[in-house]
Amino acid sequence: MSVANSLAHGVETAVPGTLHARTIIGGIRVRPQPGRQVRFGRAKRPTVDLSVGTDDQSVSRLHAEVTYEDDYWWLRNVGQQLMRLPRGQLMHRSSDPVPLAAGYTPLFIRGSGHRQHLVELFVTGPYGDTQTERHEAETVPPKIWEISPMERLLLVVLGERYLLYEEAPRPLTYKQAAARLAYLRPEDDWRPNIIEDRIEAVRYRLHAAGFPYPLRHDKAEGRPYDNNLLHNLLRGLVESTTLVPPDLDLLESTLVNLPER
Question: Cell inner membrane among the record's keywords (predicted)?
Fold first, then answer.
């Protein structure tokens, strides 16, 4: 059971600022008090308040601390390995403490090999709110971004490796994509600069629509390598299921007679 779903009963869970923490070892609930500290790591009590990664020597005996100060729980890394917060934010032991927002925060401690040890954190909001169970409610679908059939073909060619769910994929270059498209649709003009212009138009349009990853150059910081923005575009379209593996059928030359729009 996750921390968010473990807040179902008792007046104590409704106290604003209450910290709930859970690992596969167990869980704790701590009321907010100035100076109160909660510790996580591989060790047993009383060295830590909640154990995590007990069989993994890459996890420090004392790896993280959460301290209540100035109306917030402040998270600090005191271990040797990195910790990862939502949106890919990393924390080193030299990083400044991070305040936990009300609600749910997953914390991952890097372990040995490919292991990632999860600590689920939940801070009760100002109204004592908890997560309401919605077992029979309608599922919220992912955000599907609007792209034309021609844009889909271009993106599938550029992002074939993403749709194969390869590890650490990167897009084809515009030159490589032009060569592939010349084979699929030889009657069209597939110069690399034409493909780049079309993709740039997609990036600008989806940026204006609130795309979750950067798609435009920051003029104040100079022009970054364009391949990184294309990576952001393909990553977001695949994660949102706007592009899905069946789209790879477009790479069959008999199936690419698409309208322009």
Answer: no
